[in-house]
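Lab notebook: predicted structure, single chain.

Context: the supervisor wants predicted structures on file for every construct in the current expression panel, including those that have not yet been purified. This is the next one on the list. No modifications to the sequence; it matches the entry in the shared construct table.
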Amino acid sequence: MNRRTAITVGLLISAALLVMAVVRHRPGQLQAQPVEAKPGLAPAKKLIGTTSCSASVCHGGSDLGKPFSEATTWRSLDPHARAYDTLLTQESQTIAKHLWRDKMPAHEAPLCLKCHVHPEYDRARPNFRKQDGVGCESCHGAAQDWLTPHYRANWKDADKQALGLAHTKSLAGRANVCVKCHVGTPDANVDHDLIAAGHPALRFEFATYFANLPPHWDVAKDKRANSTNGAKAIDFEARAWVIGQLAAAESALNLLAHRADPASAKPWPELAEFDCFACHHDLQNGAWRQTKQRVGARRPGSLVWNSWYFAIVSDDSIQTTPPHVLLDPPVFHDFRPKTRARAELAKEARHAAANLRLAVTSPWLSGGPGQLEAGASWDQATKHYLALLSLRQQGKDNNQPPDADLERQIAKLRAEVTLAPGFNSPRQVKGKN
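Prediction complete. Output recorded below exactly as produced.
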């Protein structure tokens, strides 16, 4: 076992043990805990806007990244503060025209505003500004009831949840806030119509996105609080990666269940569920995609499932989640599946989502990302690359010297998955699809 593998095993086992403990001692309660916090969705609560948080004596101080300057840090540095502005760009307006012609600009479209402002932006007080983008209440919950008591020393956790404050102190709570927009829900998601109009396909990876946010919190304190053994062994990055994989996969399965369910009256197949690059690629003679060996048992011309949210999980490591859903069921390949087949797929997807967290006991956690298999897709290679970045940061957090083998793997994968200038799809990764 080389040093990289040893690090991988240790950090991922600690994360696995943590989640396994929750599952073992609180059966059926994991989703009811802060992991399922739904910011700002309580019917009786209204959005009051970020101006209520931004006073200089509250969170509007001038020292970026410091306590009492959280709102200033967000407004100055956080890309979420510019989410609404994105809707004003020419690119966004073009997307809106492709979808609705001239009937509705992007910055007025409910579908766009649900993620670029707030899922329930229309349930707000008059002083709520859409122009503030994804603001405080988008992550922390509608503040109508908790704004006044939230700075009192005797405010208890039970009161916070009852009044609508989202639980963002835990990694699970944060991840499940993020996936509402970055993976999607039945009420707000990026389907193939939106992608075809020009919107980027959603490829969310919690640990990486979170690492790139400008913090308006105490980073060192946060990493200690969210590590299994506190300051003795910082495994924050491992836990962020594991929890992020599970939260995103669960959200993706719930969305799949909604799309596949005949009762939803949605068109099927929903092409956003499938591999973009299996269809959108060059058609040159002699291309690697034309080899018979590549197709294997799959019928030529059939659909290929998008494996992004399950790319790290190998076929033989799924032990507690129905493999029928996760491992590319036949109904995925049929352009006109029967209603019964769609209903069965929706049922299986919901069952898989409800039990997905139990997959943390699977062997892949104790072995880490391992070696990337030959012929891996761009999705698999990219997710593997991001997992290795978490390992690198893990070592830095624990003051370990750079791992030469790990650095070589990162450099090799970076070269393979980076998109060529002028392209928004991979050309050099020769996957199976």
